[in-house]
Here is the input.
Amino acid sequence: MSANQDKKKLIVEEIKEKIEKAKSIVFIDYRGLNVNNDMKLRREFRKNNCEYKVYKNRLVLRALNDLGITGFEERLQNTLSVAFSYNDETDAARVAKNALADNPTIAIKFGIVDKKFVDEDGIKALAELPSREVLIAKLLGQLNAPAQQLCSVLSATSRNLVYALDAIANKQ
Here is the structure.
């Protein structure tokens, strides 16, 4: 086996590890992206706990097929970069969507969430979702609201009694 084949096998293993670890993956067509904008994009992905890499499509396809994620032969065409989101499913999608405004030459092609294919519109919709922490906070707020309302209703009677006694005391 040649050294080049060994190197490719190592890269395929690296890609497989990243795919298994990632909560979501976004594939971006980066044609027309200049070096400065590419560096800004990489920095933005890093700030959001994502990893942004350019791999050969053939190696990504091999890694996907090895993991049993199939049907990407036609989709892995042209110049594609890969953004792996490890903390939250929405991170890579949000950064990629925001990058479209600054770089109209790039395009979101598709993504993988929970080892399933998601088209471009699905990735853009995913980018619009709040982060997991925000969703949990909203849910907890909704769950806490009935208890707060019950406390308010129960305390209203005693509060009204205090107001009535205060009014009687002020009259005399």
